[in-house]
Amino acid sequence: MNNPSKIKEINNAQEFKKFYLEDVHYSYCAECNDIEYAHGSGFLEIVALEDIQKLQNQHVGHQVRRKFYSIILLTSGEVAENIGHQHYHFGPQSMYFIPENQIHSIESWSEDLKGMLCMFDADYFLLCIKHQIKLNQFPFFQLDKVPFVNLSDRETQMMQHLFWKLNLEKCQKKTFNDDLLVRMFLNIILLEAERIYNDKSIAETFNLSRKEQLVAQFQLLVNRHFLEKKQVTAYAEMLNVHPHYLNDVVKEISGFSASYFIHKQLIQEAKSRLLQTNSTVSMIASELNFVDDSYFGRFFKKLTGLSPLQFRKQHKHH
């Protein structure tokens, strides 16, 4: 088994294809030959698990950190994978989920594997869904919840149809409104998965270490309070730990500093306001309590690669 010491970071669909499907002469899907997303930096791509499975031996044991969300529908076969600090074995008629920035590795995939993988980033989801519906509110994307759900025959058939419809609409889109329909099908898949997830009683106990529990609690608090609490010290006080200890544990478990998660939420909020309101950059910077416009601009560009005005121009189509 390969055991590279360095975690491979995969930032987008092109890097995913290069890493998992290099030198493969078949397409992502049977409907089209296009893997490019032409509108801005957000993306959504779908690939058959069979295509990845043909080359999976090249990637067994490789740890990767995907800078986007993944939804996997498994219709037949079995997989063993590590997601974060947990090992999982998934069988047919199941869905599992990998949140952005989570360390992930493949341990084994059976030869009869079939299903679909959908990957998308937060920007793509944000372009359609109002900001109050946040990706991290879905239970299967939260660190203190199990990242999978088992499906009945009927639920599997429904999800297969939704994935097929999502892929079909993606391949046939010609206008921005067509692309809105693609995003709506993505949201339907997430909402249906959440409904099934909440209705089922999962027998396995999901045990987190004390440090993992602390990080999960911290992230949940940030999700709820980032607008009024922007300092790590405030969260450390809520969790009854020293700020340095909180930062060290968050860094150890997630690979990022505690302040990164606060900043990330602020930037997601700023993106939402840039796309869904007519507020000026100065107004948004003031509302989010940044020191001044220039600091906000530099901070925004550091995390997104674009200035606030460039982001608005690139993503706001109407």
Draw up the topology in text.
Elements: E1 8-10, H1 13-20, E2 44-48, H2 49-53, E3 64-66, E4 69-76, E5 79-83, E6 86-90, E7 94-98, E8 103-109, E9 114-120, H3 122-126, E10 148-150, H4 153-172, H5 176-199, H6 210-225, H7 232-239, H8 243-254, H9 258-276, H10 281-287, H11 293-304, H12 308-315
Parallel strand pairs: 1-3
Antiparallel strand pairs: 2-9, 3-8, 4-7, 4-9, 5-6, 5-8, 7-10
Helix pairs in contact: 4-5, 6-8, 6-9, 9-12
Description:
- By secondary structure, this protein is an alpha+beta fold.
- It is built from twelve helices and ten strands.
- Strands 1-3-8-5-6 form a five-stranded mixed sheet, with helices on one face. A five-stranded antiparallel sheet has the order 2-9-4-7-10.
- β5 and β6 form a beta hairpin.
- α6 packs across α8.
- The longest helix has 24 residues.
- The chain is globular, with a radius of gyration of 20 Å.
In short:
Helices cover 45% and strands 16% of the residues.
Tag the structure with descriptive keywords.
318 residues; alpha+beta; five-stranded antiparallel beta sheet; globular
C-alpha-based Rg, rounded: 20 Å
H-E order: EHEHEEEEEEEHEHHHHHHHHH
Low-confidence blocks of residues: 1-5, 23-40
How many beta-strand runs?
Answer: 10
- Secondary structure: helix percent: 40-55%
Mean pLDDT: 79
Shape: globular
The largest sheet, given as strand count, sense and whether it forms a barrel, is: 5 strands, mixed
Q: What is the tally of helical segments?
A: 12
Strand fraction: 15-25%
What is the spatial order of strands in the main beta sheet? 1-3-8-5-6
Distance between the termini: 50 Å
Backbone structural class: alpha+beta
